[in-house]
Amino acid sequence: MLPRYLLECPSWRSLSAQARALYVHIAVRYNGRNNGFIAFSVRDAAAECRLAKDTAARAFAELVEKGFLELAQPGAFSFKTRHAAEWRLTALPCDRTGAPPTKGFMKPRPSDPPKSESRSQKRDAPVPQSGTVTPFPGRKAC
After folding, report:
1. What domains can be seen in the chain, in order of their start residue?
2. Cβ atoms of 49 and 107 closer than 8 Å
3. What does the alpha-carbon distance between residue 85 and residue 76 come to, in Å, rounded to a whole number?
4. pLDDT tens-digit profile of 62-79?
5. 14: which of 21, 87, 129, 133 lies 20 to 30 Å off by Cα?
6. Residue 130, SS3?
């Protein structure tokens, strides 16, 4: 279940479809006590979300940049066995460190789309005075 405040925030709306799908796949791996230990590699994400490996990597980067994910433990090929990166969902408390949710996605960012004006704000827009002519762009006024 994804909380309503997460789905309605401007950061979520500005995410690509690939990043949203990846977030859902990571959230499914959360079992109630493993936040900060959610192992998910770029290759696994590409296979599960049916994305190219580079697209999956961009989706991870987008989720981190917008504040939905934090990297808890980087993955590596240097071990004798493969080790996937471990992630933390910022909307939930961290089970690795005990830290409260940071909800970094709720902080306004310059890349977020602007909020649309409400009807009352549009109604209060200045109205041209009667008798004035506003020419069309590219046309000369009479």
Report:
1. 4-96 (1.10.10.10)
2. no
3. 8
4. 999 999 999 998 887 766
5. 87
6. coil
What is the four-CA torsion angle of 73, 78, 84, 86, rounded to 10 degrees?
0
CA–centroid distance for 5 within its chain: 13
| pLDDT score recorded for residue 84 | 86
SS3 4: helix
Q: Which residues contact 8 (CB under 8 A, 6 or more apart)?
A: none
Tell me the DSSP string of 51-108.
Answer: --HHHHHHHHHHHHHTTSEEEEE--BSSSSS-B--EEEETTS--TTT-PPP--GGGS-
Give residue-wise pLDDT tens across range 109-138. 665 555 565 555 555 656 556 655 656 565
Task: Give the global pTM.
Answer: 0.72
Question: What is the identity of the amino acid at 70?
Answer: E
